[in-house]
Amino acid sequence: MAGLGSYEPGPRILALAGRVMHRFDPARQASGALRALCEATGFTTHFAIRNADEAVYVDKQEGRRPYQMPSRIGMSVNLHTTAIGKAILAELGDEQVLAICRRTGLAPRTPRTLTSEEELLAHLARVRALGYAIDDEENEPGIRCLGVAVFDHTGRVLGGISVSALAMDLDLPGLQARAPQVVAAARDVSAALGAAASTARR
């Protein structure tokens, strides 16, 4: 029984809260910012959510290019090979990162993939300093991406968003020049997902 002056939600309130949370769709909450980023850059944008030791694409907006990215909604991707994945890993502690690496291994996807724990940890330190991660043909040959972490209402990293293009269409300096746009979009997505302003701005 609730004490004097306290409140306990009844079963109807709990059922209503459950229905509201069930309808809460992160992809739908993020779609406006993801679409705006796609329109602003002209390149394909993705939103992926962490699922245990990988990430899963939950939204994708095709850019205004004469090609399409091979990614698709529902596709699972490695954390250590992708820009979104590395942005997620950079928000975890080194011990968590190492635990993931030891469960999944650091299998190479391309000759550019980071395949040693030491190399990955050093790389993630740079990602933290920059505020974004780059996949420079590390997951798919000929494709570059720039990703930024996204946070949920608890302040924990939920996933990330990215801009992707063919390497021949966007060189590394050109990709890095888009970083402020991706960072701003990630803040908008985090805010839409209920993250506190201080979390969404980091």
From TrEMBL:
* PROSITE patterns attached to this UniProt entry: ICLR_ED
* An annotated GO BP: negative regulation of DNA-templated transcription
A Pfam match is: IclR_C
Q: Which GO terms describe its molecular function?
A: DNA binding; DNA-binding transcription factor activity
**Lineage: superkingdom:** Bacteria
Tell me where in this chain the IclR-ED domain is found. Answer: 12-195
| Annotated protein name in UniProt | IclR-ED domain-containing protein
Q: Which organism is it from?
A: Actinoplanes siamensis
